[in-house]
Write a structure and sequence with these properties.
Order of helices and strands: HHHHHH
Number of domains: 2
Radius of gyration: 64 Å
Amino acid sequence: MILFLSGISVNLFGLEPDSTILAERDFYLKKYNSVKDTMTINTWLNLKRLSDNLQEVVLRDQIIIDQLLRQNHLDSSHWDSINSMDSELKQLRFANSQIASRSKNDLHMMWVLKTSASVLTILVLVMIYLLITSKNKISRYKKRQNELESHKIGIQNQLLLQELEVSKLKQREKDFRSELEKGLITYQEKLNLLQKRNSLLEEELSKIKNSGNNQEIGNFYLPHTSIDISEIPQDSEGVAAVLKAITDERDSLMNLAGKLQKQIHEEKEKYNKLVLMIKALPDEDSDS
């Protein structure tokens, strides 16, 4: 407002340029030169200060020029002053345009830097998230691997125990088969001997009944046997009882042999299942 009234008063009275305007111009010009000379880094704030001061100088130069142009009688010194000021004004305007352009470029550069910093921050956060996720997956994988290893060791221990048990059962089966074969041979010999003895007794009794004689029944000699004939009863009923006992014992042994064979078969199936479970476990070399 003060500058506007000063310009009107100069136009009305045709006086020399107002000393106040000149003083203000010198003030802003000095501020402009001060900022320009001391500025080492073209930050946006310093560029804004330069632009503001330069605009103030240009505004006051324009007022002074208008005042001088409106004077009716101007001498050559005034024209020189006007031309000099006009030239300086053009230089200042050119400098102002350069500063404005640099300010715009700096603002664009600052926007690019801020955008790049934001994108970089997002990328860093994504990398941190992926790192944490990968670490959790690795921890779960190691935990699962340890569990599988413990389970595998347990199954291997069970397999060893089963192998020992199967080997014991096989040895027991072998021993039992040997004893069973010996027993079957012995009982078969006894059975054959008893059958022969029974036949002889029946034949002898039949002869005695038919002849009516009271002969004593003597001992019979049965070759090719290791059975003591004195242990065999002399009467038919005793022989039949011994024969039945031997037959029952043989059947019992055969039944026991069948049960043992079934138990061995079941243990073999358990052993085969454990072997399949061990083979189904993941291999450490393939996992690593």
